[in-house]
Design goal:
Elements (H helix, E strand, L loop, with lengths): L2 E7 L5 H14 L4 E7 L6 H6 L21 E9 L2 E2 L1 H8 L2 H6 L6 E8 L8 H13 L2 E2 L25 E3 L9 H24 L1
Parallel strand pairs: 1-2, 1-3, 3-5, 5-6, 5-7
Antiparallel strand pairs: 3-4
Helix pairs in contact: 1-6
């Protein structure tokens, strides 16, 4: 049976979703892996989202906590709020208490990707503080490290992402993920899926 990799994310303006789509392409490029995109539930009312200028959500299915158990590996994605994951994603994680109690996610590999508003806006603190969620569930954090090669050392261009995982800068919302950022996202998906497949095969 194929190893199931779930890419679970929250995206208000579409930046995290673009990374998620590229991560899925990377995961799908690994033979014997089946990748699927999921969104977490929105917590803000439509009226507030409209005032914030957020576009309508795409038709990517909404996940429930119990569906996480079906995955052999999960990559979580979210925008930052003051250097930590957005409240919408934290609310979803808070709803996984039942899974924590039974340790149903223990031993599963997990990755992280993210979007920040600026270069000092949390490209490392956002994934770093999110690791606590994985730790309490007993999940195995899989960072990309420096496996992306030369792209990790780019200094001439503005570039999101870190050894923790793929990332992008949203700026005022008009900036979109660059080719280099999308390249890291694809690489993360492929790298993570290969590890998830190996762990499933050795189980």
């Amino acid at each position: 049976m194929a190893a199931k990799v779930y890419i679970v994310y929250y995206s208000m303006y579409g930046h995290v979703e673009k990374l998620a789509e590229e991560i899925k392409k990377g995961a799908d490029s690994v033979e014997g892996v089946e990748a699927k995109l999921w969104q977490v539930p929105e917590t803000l009312p439509e009226e507030v989202l409209g005032k914030l200028g957020a576009p309508p959500k795409t038709d990517v299915p909404i996940i429930t906590p119990n569906e996480l158990v079906e995955a052999d590996g999960i990559i979580f994605g979210f925008p930052t709020r003051f250097g930590m994951m957005a409240a919408q994603f934290k609310a979803f994680m808070d709803a996984t208490g039942g899974l924590w109690g039974s340790q149903k996610l223990a031993g599963k590999p997990a990755g992280i990707f993210y979007s920040t508003g600026s270069q000092g806006g949390g490209q490392e603190t956002t994934p770093l503080t999110a690791i606590t969620q994985l730790t309490h569930h007993g999940m195995i954090f899989v960072p990309v490290g420096y496996t992306f090669g030369a792209g990790m050392f780019e200094m001439e261009k503005v570039k999101g992402g870190s050894p923790y995982g793929a990332g992008t800068f949203a700026g005022d919302g008009s900036r979109q993920p660059s080719e280099l950022e999308l390249g890291l996202a694809f690489h993360q998906g492929k790298y993570f899926a290969d590890i998830a497949k190996k762990l499933k095969g050795s189980a």
